[in-house]
Amino acid sequence: MDLFEELYRQYGYDVRFLPEFCVGGCGATVINYYIVGPEGELYKCWNDLGVKKQIVGYLNSDEIVNFELLARYMAGPTMMDSHECIECKLLPTCEGGCIWERHKNLFEGRKYDYLCNTRKDNIDRALELHYEKMIKQQKHHEQDYEKDISYSII
Ligand code: SF4
Question: What is the arrangement of strands in the sheet containing 35-36, beginning at the earlier edge strand?
Fold first, then answer.
């Protein structure tokens, strides 16, 4: 949250502090989404590009060469299978984070911890910043409105 606050305050980025409902998901979970490698090999995620065991097929073939991986990406564990996510107040706002990282953690014992919405552990601060931003925007609108009125009087 500190980084986002800095981006907002120091560099004027229009940071959205308020968690928002978000649906869309990751291409890796979509049936017609593939990354094509230089030799026509197909992957489900660009993080897998160049890793032979992550190839799911080839452009010039109908054969699925790694059915387990393909099925895992498209129908495997998501946030909806996670007790932590189901209990989380921010559930519909993060899309469950990166599916590649989720699967690496689940199936390869990795410890990626970027899955969660950055506001999850800082929700009070995020709401304060959102409120502060709204007040600032409101003041700008009022100033613009007053300017418009003074122009029309002239
Ligand atoms: S913020 Fe973290 S725990 Fe909450 S739904 Fe998203 S991934 Fe799951």
Answer: 35-36, 41-43, 57-58
What is the pTM (predicted TM-score) of this model? Answer: 0.78
- Supply the mean pLDDT for the chain: 91
Question: How many alpha carbons fall within 13 Å on the CB side of residue 21?
Answer: 0
Please calculate the CA angle 26-81-66 and round it to the nearest 5 degrees: 55
Greatest C-alpha distance within the chain: 75
pLDDT confidence band for 13 (50 / 70 / 90):
very high
Ligand 1 atom at minimal distance to the Cα of residue 120: 1
Q: Kindly give the interhelix angle for 2-11 and 123-153, rounded to the nearest 10 degrees.
A: 20
CA dihedral 112, 89, 21, 33 (to 10 degrees): 30
Output the ligand 1 site: residues, CB below 6 A: 79, 84-85, 88, 90-91, 94, 96-97, 115-117, 120
